[in-house]
Design a protein that fits this description.
The protein has 201 residues and is an alpha/beta fold. Helix content is 34%, strand content 27%. The chain contains 9 helices and 7 strands. The chain has helices spanning 2-9, 17-29, 51-57, 70-82, 95-98, 119-126, 144-149, 151-156, 195-198, and strands at residues 39-43, 62-67, 88-92, 108-114, 130-140, 159-169, 172-181. The longest helix is centred in the N-terminal third of the chain and has 13 residues, at 17-29. The radius of gyration is 16 Å and the shape is globular.
Length: 201
Amino acid sequence: LLKEYNEKFNITAITDDIEIVKKHFIDSLMGNSLLEGESLIDIGSGGGFPAIPIKITNPNLKVTLLEATEKKCSFLRIVIEKLNLKNINVVNGRAEELAKNLNYREKFDMCSARAVARLNTLSEYCMPFVKKGGYFISFKGDFEEELREASTAISVLGGKLKSVKAFELFDFKRGIIKIEKIKNTPNQYPRGRGKERKNPL
């Protein structure tokens, strides 16, 4: 499906079958061991990674896919229908706006994100969705510098570093950062209007 709809929806630059399996599917599934809870919101879902492979392998998980581009939302809805996935929905919107909505703010056990932004910026997008006692799970490449520069943001937003799963995947350095939400995110975050990217915490 990814290959079939890629030309129309511009989902991924990776088009070789083996590379898709390695760099998208297997990479996404490396997060399975870190899951803890019943509900997950995936920020900037794009082609559905990591959330769709996670959902396929964890059928009881309630999943929300948040994606700002309507074309990609259309693709995600096609995938859900064709694979007959249950308890999964697609929301077309921006994280910095939806995080202010009380139906979404601090409502999820987990929030995931892969290839969206640097960790200091990403934390401000993602942490407001996580309920106290839940987790933000960030899929990264070479992550050490990002983790250092995000320490203030993680703390300010109510988080505490729980674990880092560092590994090599087919010669690529990868890391999955798990942040526990230990207190509520202050109401002023996310700040919106691009401040998360222009002036990270």
